[in-house]
Amino acid sequence: MPDARFLVVFxxxxxxLRNEVIELIADEAGRGAEVAAATEVAMRxxxxxxxxxxxxxxxxxxVPLSAFARVLxxxxxxxxxxxxxxxIHARGGVTAVVSGGFHEVLDTVAPALGVxxxxxxxxxxxxxxLTGEVDGTIVDAAGKxxxxxxxxxxxxxxxxxxxxxxxGANDLQMMAAAGLGLAFNAKPAVRAQxxxxxxxVDLRQVIPLLP
Length: 211
Prior knowledge:
Number of strands: 7
CATH superfamily: HAD superfamily/HAD-like
Order of helices and strands: EHHHHHEHEEHEHEHE
Largest sheet: 7 strands, mixed
Oligomer: single chain
CATH topology: Rossmann fold
């Protein structure tokens, strides 16, 4: 397989997707508002992401696995997502998603959007319901940056020809590692540290920036 011309790595929630998926799952437990408030604090970078995620996932305990069909039905791609991914492929690039969210949703959503590679957290289940735990090492800010470097090496794209797109504090390390770090639909701290800020919530705005 020839080396990719470039690599674009997306955050998932509130970047490639309009939703915060953990909030949709929490709605199934009647705790959506509580988890949404905690997610907002985490995305502003005011608390440790892994600690916050474990706490928020505890609120999902007891949600039946059958609820994921309802959750997936509510997930919406961000406007322009499909067009941007098509444009990346047309130019010889590859796409990846690294998320502090969950494989239980990305394993359906990512291939449907044409994404080439993805990585996220996994939820523990027993007796057909969530236990309120995360399986294995949490994908946090350092994990996202590591994934970008790993995928760049695997695809043959130099780091100087990588683009990272994110909205929250846990995206800052991968944005710093990338050749170009784009703040999209982003919190103020992220906008302040990004190489460039995309204002409209439309991923087609990224197309002119592709190599």
